[in-house]
Write a structure and sequence with these properties.
Layout: H1 2-18, H2 25-39, E1 42-54, E2 74-86, E3 98-106, H3 108-113, E4 125-136, E5 142-150, H4 170-175, E6 179-189, E7 192-199, E8 213-222, E9 225-235, E10 244-257, E11 260-276, E12 281-298, E13 303-314, E14 324-335, E15 347-358, E16 363-364, E17 370-371, E18 373-386
Antiparallel strand pairs: 1-2, 1-18, 2-3, 3-4, 4-5, 5-6, 6-7, 7-8, 8-9, 9-10, 10-11, 11-12, 12-13, 13-14, 14-15, 15-18, 16-17
Amino acid sequence: MIKKIIGILALGVIVVTGGANLVSAEEENKESRLLDFLKSIEVGFYLDTSYEYNFNKPESGNNSLRIFDQDHNDFNIHMFQLSFKRTPSMEGGISNLVGFGVKLDFGEDADVIASTGLGDEDDEFDLQEAYIHILAPIGNGISIYAGKFVTLAGAEVIESKDNFNFSRSFLFGFAIPFTHTGIRVNYPAGVFDFTLGLSNGWDNVDDNNDGKTIEARVGLNYDIFSLGVAGYFGPEQDGNDDNWRELIDVVATFTPFERLTLMANLDFGWEQDVSDVELGLDNSDVFWWGIAGYVAYEFNQMLSLAVRAEYFDDSDGFRTGTEQKLFEITPTLSIKPFAGHGSLDNLILRVEYRFDSSDEDVFEDDDGNFKDTQHTVATELIYYFSL
């Protein structure tokens, strides 16, 4: 329907610019190319809302060590997203070798992932991605991305609809970056794919030093099993090009049969010569690591259940602000009440319980004191579609 409307609008442009019977062949060609270009763009809409309750009843109203679900006893508009994407192809001539991707994020999640050097703080807007995608017609096609794009690391992503759970893991929030600005090259070769890139660093559009961060990933996709190993290597400290931060990220997925998915995520990160007065770090080498496991089962097209369990070790306190070891377990029930009914199939209702534990007292209670556990329940409603 939308593409029919675009066609009608394009026809209207022809009529207005030259008259239905007087438009030149050149003008008709321009309008035809414009229409073809508009039809090649995939437009996406995404809306994510929730309510969450913390049984600790934190005095500040904030859930401790949560990434996006930070508000206790609050209805939340996490994200309203508009996306535009044109995927290049080696079919259809040279004009189809260039594409792009843009994601515009509005809402509270946008402030969390916002990159340094782009926009104002607390404006609840973020340009999550904005890149040019060039497909070089060599072999299976070499994809070249230039601009801002999401990280290669992690088992979870920014959009909740593409995750098993509503809340994000500690690994997603503290072990890895969200986005990068730079250049990325990807080449698929049979069951393997290879990615290599260079960026300004972790979550920054304006680089904070003169060094650059190297990214690399090797992926294996074979039938019911997939494995991805990604790495990031480069200086991330302000005005320092010598002290590197390094990360190794491993994600493995196994689908023994259609309705069951098993996934594991392992992260190792370290950084050289970190100084932080509050953490007592004076040119100290820091290290963090964690592991998360997921089990997801789809009972039918309407109902599915996912359970995540993870352990995160931040013994130097560099990533969370406290020297601690964290554990959490999260079961999430997802319901598609209108499954199989066209665009309404994309309405998702989730109910989630989460238990967090630390070997330190880091979870706030109703008196403003801190304890070593935190229990929350949440409901989430998502709707999305693409054209």
